[in-house]
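Usage

Read records sequentially. Each one opens with the input sequence:
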Amino acid sequence: MAIYKVSGQEIHTVEAGSPNRQKAILIHGWSSSSYAMDPLMDLLSQRFACVAVDLPGYGKSPPLSKRVKIPDYAELIADLIEQISDGPVVLVGHSMGGMISITLSLRHSALVERMVLLSPTITGRLSTMINSLIAPISVMERVSFGQFLVSAVENAYIGLTDRLMRPVSFADRTEITEEQYARLRADARRPDGGRVRAECFFAMRDNDLTNQLSQVETPTMCIWGAEDNTVPLRDAGVVADFWPSAELRIIPNAGHWPHFEEPATTKRLISSFLGLPLLSDKLHAPVGDGELVQVQESAQFLAHSGIGTGLSLAQRTRLAAQLRQHVHPPYRSIIQPDHDDQEMYIVKAGTVEVWSDPESPGELPKQPQRVASLKPGEMTGELAMIDQGLRTADLISGPEGAVVLSLSRERLLALMEDDPDLGSMLLWNIAQAMSQRVRFILWQLQRANMRARAEQRLWEEDRARQFQPKDPPAGQSQDGPRILT
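and closes with the structure output:
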C-alpha cells in the first residue's frame, strides 16, 4: 500500500512488481476499488511496476472536494503519472476506469503507450436493467436521507441489491468465487460511498466518447464479456464502428467482470497484447530484466526481418515475447537433420549455414554440401515446423557465430488462437518467405538446366566434329584413289 498526494488530493494505491520498470496504472470502475484489478496484478507485475489506484471516494481514498467529473479523474491520474513515472505508461481500465483511460489518452496522448480496457464505458448509457433498477437507488443516494432510506431497505430486505446486481454483473456460468464476489459486493455497497456513486453515475452519462474515439492514437485492446448486462455490448458496437484501430475481443461465459469470470482467457489476451514473455501455463513465472530487454531488442529487430513485414510495434512486441534467443559459437550445430523439435529459426546476428545433399532433396543427406548461407533477418525451418516433418538439412553457425531466435509450433498456435489477426499476418509472412525461397530454387534449377543443355549441345557438336569425314588427300577422290594413265 502506498499513499500519494496529487494536486492536494490523497490517493491510496496497491503496488506490485519491480519499481524500476515501466509503470502500469490500473483504474477500477464505478462502485468498486483497487481490488477490482486484483486478478491482473500477478500477471502484469511480471513486466511492469503495477500501481492500482483507489479513485477519490472509493476504497481508502477520500472523496474530491467538488462534484465528480470524468475529466477531473483523468487529470488527477495524469498528475499521478507525472509524479511517479519517467516515461509513458500502460493504462488498464475497467468499466468507468476504461472511460477515464480513454479521456486521459485523448487529453495527454504522450503519457500513454498502450491501453487495455475491460468492459469500458463508452457512451455513458448503461444497460436498461441498470437504468431501470439501479439508477433510482443511485439518485436517492445523492442526499443523506436517501442514503439512510436505501440502507434501511437493504437491512430490512437482506440482499435486495444483491439480487438486483448479481444477474446484471455476472454471466450465468461465471467462474467468480464466493470470496471474490463478497469483496466486490462490499465495495459496491460501502455505506459512505453513496454520494460518489451517484455523482459518478451521472458523470459517465455526461461524458459520451462516441464522437471522439476516432481521435484516439494509443494502441488499445478492448475486452468484453458476452453476457455483460452493465455496460452493454452496444458499446462494443460503437467501438467497432467508430474506433476500428482498437482490437475488440468478446469472451463467452463472462459478464461485466471478465478478469474474474474467465481469468485464463482474459490473461491470455492481455499477455499477447502487452507482449508478456510467457503464455498460458506459465503466466506467473518471474521474468528478469534481461529477458525484458531481449524482448524489446527483438521487437525492434523484427522490423527488418521477413517475418515482421507489415507488423506494428505492438504486434512485433507480442511476437518477440514468444521467441527464444540462442547464442551459438562459430561452427556449432544449431539443428541436426532428422530432428523433430518443431521450431523455426530467425537469424538475428552472424550467419547460419545450411548443409544438405542436393543429389537427394527432401531426404536425409548422404554427402552434405553447403547449399546456403543465411543472413540476419532470414528464416529457416518453417516447413518442418508447419508440417511436423523431419529435418532434411543441418544448420551450422557461421565463422563468426550466430544469434538465433526460435519460434515453436506450440507458441505459434497459441499466438494464433489469442490473436487471429496477428496469426494470419505471421502465416502470410512465412508463406511469402517460403515462396521467395522456392522461386529462387526454381530459378537456380532453371539456370542449371540451361547450363546442362548448353553443355550437352557443346558435347554433341564436339562429338560430331570428331566423327565428321575428313577431306581426301590431294589427287584422291572421295571414292578412292585416282589412277593416272
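Summary fields computed downstream for this record:
- The chain has a mean pLDDT of 83.
- The first strand starts at residue 2 and ends at 6.
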